[in-house]
Design brief:
This protein has eight helices and 21 strands. By secondary structure, it is of the alpha/beta class. The two termini are 27 Å apart.
């Protein structure tokens, strides 16, 4: 979906990079020199893959967390030959999905998934077992309990001294947030996330409301997901509208439902969770899981931009 299609007709789109936020003067300064004044500001700068904790990752690895890097990865894959080794670093949900997609898309590649701990360690054992079976069915080699220490042009080095051949390396380990809050003198946690209260309001600057990966609600960040992004965005808007109307804003009440992992185009694992995102016993997998995952992705676009969204997208 083009960004313009997701915006209201009365919204003005400015494409640029924010250099700093002047909370006292209520002005956003762009790197190109333009300044934009605001009555209220929604801080929703998101997150990206972290590359600074593995030597050589920034120079020699790809990520799928940003559009430009994903396109660069796609282009790189057109140049590797059949049987070429591809290493995916990170056993979380993004790493699992990436390894499965690559193996299904290019079945003649030799895909290895490396995880410093267990693969999908946040899920229950039933879900983990089904994920590992699916990866095996795609001939993905899984290495657990091994930390990657260095990536160069043709190899990935593990902490135990092993060297893995890698014509292409993809990092899907940890996320990082832009340092904009810190640079702007706004309250932030040690990782740079904007600190907000349970109404998503920045305590020192009540005209700034935060949403998404780059905020910590009462000191706690939430898992990167559309499941959090959509209701947080809606709640940020509700907080601003209630302030304009002279009403007290409501506290946000996170209500997670599930964790969904694609395993190629024809299979997925859907792990039911409680409202705090802890795994429950219910797991749906295979083609049924893929259908559920695809419907979730479709509805995220359909309802995420619709003011009359269903209750599942409301966290108040």
């Amino acid at each position: 979906m083009p960004l313009t299609a997701a915006l209201h007709d009365r919204a003005r789109l400015v494409v640029g990079t924010v250099a700093s936020i002047d909370a006292r003067g209520q002005v956003v300064h762009l790197t190109a020199g333009e300044s934009i004044s605001y009555g209220y500001l929604v801080y929703a700068v998101g997150s990206t893959s972290r590359l600074d904790h593995v030597d050589g990752a920034r120079e020699h690895a790809f990520t799928v967390s940003e559009y430009e890097s994903a396109l660069a990865l796609r282009q790189r894959l057109t140049t590797v030959t059949a049987g070429a080794p591809v290493v995916v670093v990170g056993g979380g949900l993004t790493g699992i999905e990436t390894a499965a997609e690559l193996a299904e898309l290019r079945p003649k590649l030799s895909v290895t998934l490396v995880s410093s701990g267990q693969v999908a360690e946040g899920l229950n054992e039933k879900a983990r077992a089904r994920i590992l079976r699916a990866l095996a069915s795609h001939s993905v080699e899984v290495i657990e309990g091994s930390r990657v220490t260095r990536i160069n042009e043709r190899k990935v080095e593990l902490a135990d001294g092993r060297m893995l051949a890698a014509e292409c390396a993809v990092v899907a380990m940890a996320s990082a947030v832009p340092p904009l809050a810190l640079k702007s003198g706004l309250p932030a946690d040690a990782d740079g996330r904007l600190l907000v209260d349970d109404t998503l309001t920045c305590p020192n600057s009540p005209n700034i409301v935060g949403a998404g990966d780059a905020v910590a609600i009462d000191g706690m960040p939430l898992r990167m997901s559309c499941q959090a992004a959509i209701p947080l965005g809606a709640h940020a808007a509700d907080t601003i509208l209630r302030r304009i109307e002279g009403k007290p804003p409501k506290a946000v009440n996170p209500k997670f439902i599930s964790q969904c992992i694609s395993l190629g185009r024809r299979a997925a694992v859907v792990q039911r969770t409680d409202s705090k995102d802890n795994p429950r016993s219910t797991v749906v997998s295979g083609r049924t899981g893929a259908l559920i995952k695809e419907q979730i992705c479709t509805s995220a676009l359909k309802w995420g931009v619709n003011p009359r969204r269903p209750v599942m997208y409301t966290w108040s």
